[in-house]
Design brief:
Bound molecules: NADPH dihydro-nicotinamide-adenine-dinucleotide phosphate
Largest sheet of chain A: 6 strands, parallel
Distance between the termini of chain A: 44 Å
Shape of chain A: globular
Number of helices of chain A: 10
Number of strands of chain A: 11
Oligomer: homodimer
Helix content of chain A: 25-40%
Largest interface: A-B, 32 and 33 residues
Subcellular location (chains A, B): Cytoplasm
Family (chains A, B): In the N-terminal section; belongs to the tetrahydrofolate dehydrogenase/cyclohydrolase family. In the C-terminal section; belongs to the formate--tetrahydrofolate ligase family.
Protein name (chains A, B): C-1-tetrahydrofolate synthase, cytoplasmic
Organism (chains A, B): Hanseniaspora osmophila
Subunit structure (chains A, B): Homodimer.
Chain lengths: 303, 303
């Protein structure tokens, strides 16, 4: 058995939350009314959504970001929801607006996410932000949280990304595709894989970096990996486990047990990408608040 | 020496122009005032831009699309140009607006291309169209012409694209990146390469499809290719050639002589992607005109 490094998103995320908190306190010394504010709209009451919303609320609190969760009825009409969003867009004291996905079937997700002001779109899902992210030298207001969390984890390894072969398993709009864009911008050579990829184990033989975001429990196997690959596991899957009180167990898209012996760095599930996602969200809200303040000429323009 | 198929963009483009012409004449039988109209703005007088503009004008004429080229002075101010664009955006008789790139240095290319109405952006460079193209199930009004020309050429081979390994050499916003998006949407497994890609010949060993768009004369060599690869050469490069009256010779990004013996299909330069680009532009104008007409309820909604 050889040594691998566990990339603990949990610890890194905690550090980021503390840093955000410090930064906010420091700004408040000069601008007492500085108050980064995140609004979350949760439509309906899916239990998984409630769990995620709670994690976002907790992380906001720990980071010194005010967060208000508003629960809206499952059967809200599109017009009512759009009106709500418009009010929030126009409310200067709210810096970030997050609509918890997925939405009930009668609501058009594309339409709703694009109704959020691009400069309050802390999830990074607005067409403007998606378009800018996909371009070279594009300037999105916000980078989507999960992909940005993956990138931060990769940077934590200290390994230069330039010229590395990165294989992304998954091409969804919220994970796979933006991860591909981000790593391309870091000058990785990026291969994007999906359901119709025919020779994935062979493609992985050449991968210095693997990001698994396919929603398939324990999918990536150790003997597919190149020796010393860096492995980021985005997956959140529940599989039956009679030894647990809940009757189920959380696993990623990577078969951790076989992969840890090949990887140089590997993220655990839970405690890997999940907490990073939430930390990146909070950072986006802080950034939005700083931009708003600097536009009020109260702060110098921030990086 | 073995057999390869020459993918003649020249011939396919000609067919597309004739088809467009037929379609326009047919629509005119029902809607006599139907008149697809392309406006081209050329700022300054770069000789290469003049050549490209002329090709677009000729192709429009051959396809039955009206085309007006307006030449603006090199030193036009950004405000004047933006005013001009606004007028054209508001002019219902103009269906497509193309600003010939590159622009003089004092004009911000991003700002100018984004000033064109997304639904007249027949080049497909507007942020809206870029963003939609990069998303799964996104709905751009227009697909950028050169990438779409590459896709059409690949489809001409009759080879199913699903599951094929495609390697794209180049990641520019106007060629490499949108080609990657289009082929990903066709369910290819896509690898995007660039200047920092470290082992390109090795990566190409696995490529069923190669799209070369790196602007490096005769760059891709035959012994890098997988046997029977399909090779699309986007490059337009001039190299010195004393045997020519002009003193120069046009070559692509692919070393045609060594590659033709490995490839199953290969595009020539000239006569490959170039004419397809112009044909796709004309098709975009026709589509814009059809959409405008159908919104006037004069035509049934078109595909
Ligand atoms: N940690 C976090 O904070 C977050 C975690 N997640 C988790 O990440 C995972 C991915 O999420 P998301 O992108 O939204 O999921 P989607 O279901 O939207 O996308 C899954 C992607 O994986 C591809 N895929 C599916 N099966 C295979 C296979 N056998 N081989 C190769 N590719 C395959 C799909 O291909 P195709 O396109 O062909 O269908 C698709 O592109 C999930 O487990 C999700 O729970 C998601 C968001 C946040
Ligand atoms: N036929 C047609 O209608 C058209 C043809 N073209 C032609 O296509 C070619 C590409 O155009 P365009 O995309 O605008 O060019 P750009 O110069 O904008 O982009 C070139 C791309 O190739 C990459 N590249 C450069 N050198 C290498 C190398 N040695 N190995 C691997 N990748 C490399 C660059 O990488 P990096 O990002 O790291 O710099 C960059 O991404 C040109 O020859 C152009 O004339 C363009 C438009 C239309």
């Amino acid at each position: 058995s050889r040594l691998y490094h566990l990339l603990s998103g949990k610890e890194i995320a905690k550090r980021i939350r503390l840093e955000s908190n410090d930064e906010i306190q420091k700004i408040k010394q000069d601008v007492p009314e500085f108050k980064p504010f995140l609004k979350i709209l949760q439509i309906g009451a899916r239990p998984d959504s409630s769990t995620y919303v709670k994690a976002k609320l907790n992380a906001s609190n720990e980071s010194g970001v005010a967060c208000d969760v508003e629960k809206l009825p499952e059967n809200i009409s599109e017009i009512e929801l759009l009106e709500k969003i418009k009010d929030i867009n126009n409310n200067d004291s709210i810096h970030g607006l997050l609509i918890q996905l997925p939405l009930p079937k009668h609501l058009n997700e594309t339409k709703i996410t694009n109704a959020v002001s691009a400069n309050k779109d802390v999830d990074g899902f607005h067409r403007y932000n998606v378009g800018e992210l996909s371009k070279r030298g594009g300037e999105p207001y916000f980078i989507p949280c999960t992909p940005n969390g993956c990138l931060k984890l990769l940077k934590e390894t200290g390994i230069p990304l330039k010229g590395k072969n990165a294989v992304i398993i998954g091409r969804s709009d919220i994970v796979g595709t933006p991860v591909s864009s981000l790593l391309k911008n870091e000058n990785c050579t990026v291969t994007t894989c999906h359901r119709y990829t025919e020779n994935l184990p062979q493609i992985l033989q050449n991968a210095d970096i693997v990001v698994a975001a396919c929603g398939q429990p324990n999918f990536v196997k150790g003997d597919w990996l190149k020796q010393d690959a860096v492995v980021i596991d985005v997956g959140i899957n529940y599989i039956p486990d009679s030894s647990k009180k809940s009757g189920r167990k959380l696993v990623g898209d990577v078969d951790f047990e076989s992969c840890k012996n090949k990887a140089s760095f590997i993220t655990p599930v839970p405690g890997g990408v999940g907490p990073m996602t939430v930390a990146m969200l909070v950072k986006n809200v802080l950034q939005a608040a700083k931009t708003a303040e600097s536009q009020n000429n109260k702060l110098p323009t921030c990086e």
